[in-house]
Amino acid sequence: MKFARLGPVGQEVPVVVLDDGVHSLAGLTNDLDAAFWESDGPARVAAAGDLPLVEDAADLRIGPPISRPGAIVCIGMNYAAHAAESGAEPPTSPVVFFKAPNTLAGPNDPVVIPRGSTKTDWEVELGVVIGKRASYLDSPADSLDHIAGFVVANDLSERAFQLEVSGGQWSKGKIAAGFSPIGPWLVTPDELDHQKLGLRSFVNGEPRQDSSTADLIFDVATVIHHLSQYMVLDPGDLILTGTPEGVALSGRFPYLRPGDVVELEIDGLGRQRQEYVAWEAGR
């Protein structure tokens, strides 16, 4: 199944995307939130029978396909070639950092370049949404039962904030508002093989990243198991699994400027398009 949220910012409504169109979930759930995943929402949707069509779906803004998560957990340098272009050795243990929930944005929302930014960078990533509480899992094999679905994500970064004025942590370069566009859909695990998905990014129509989740250093199951040893993952939490090579940090491409357009895609998970705009007081 493909789940999405449509409508203005803060007023999104949950829908399911089926072969015959987009159907409202208003009668089944208030939102695609922790309560929906905890109550086995996809199974309830499958058993619901006819659901009303959203006739104007094509005219509505696409919001992030999950409501505000309790945590956005990110894995750094999880592709060997990206670690190399960052000037680092591949990690021997997952590198973990966090983003604020208010970084979440829709897949096609404009992105405001932070005030004072000179090094805003793109990162296409496979996002994993947790569907069932995970704590101290016994093995990576237990991880997959805790996944609600997968999303396209852009783990945006401001590299000067991240690396030059960081104080030793990465968060300053990761937590600007709108710095985590996800969607257009959440796709349930039965719909695809997440272990070998092509993922790509483009800036102003020019190719930047082109890789596969088969090249992850720590695969999805390992990441979830590892995180569960240190934190409780709750339903609706979002994990960003790392980006492949081809970002501006490599020195091969310019950083983003107002007017640039970034597009990202992952096989089976859809495509994003964001225009980058300058910061203005009050925006």
Number of helices: 5
Strand coverage percent? 25-35%
Structural class: mainly beta
Distance between the termini: 36 Å
- Give the overall form: globular
Radius of gyration, Cα only, in angstroms? 18 Å
- Low-pLDDT runs: none
Average pLDDT, rounded to a whole number, is 95
What is the number of strand segments?
19
**What is the helix/strand order?**
EEEHHEEHEEEEEEEHEEEEHEEE
Helix content: 10-25%
For the sheet with most strands, the description reads: 5 strands, antiparallel
Q: Can you summarize this structure?
A:
The protein has 283 residues and is mostly beta strands. It has helices at residues 34-38, 41-46, 80-85, 159-164, 220-228, and strands at residues 2-6, 13-18, 21-24, 62-63, 72-76, 95-99, 104-105, 111-112, 120-121, 124-130, 147-154, 157-158, 180-181, 186-187, 198-203, 206-212, 238-240, 261-266, 270-277.
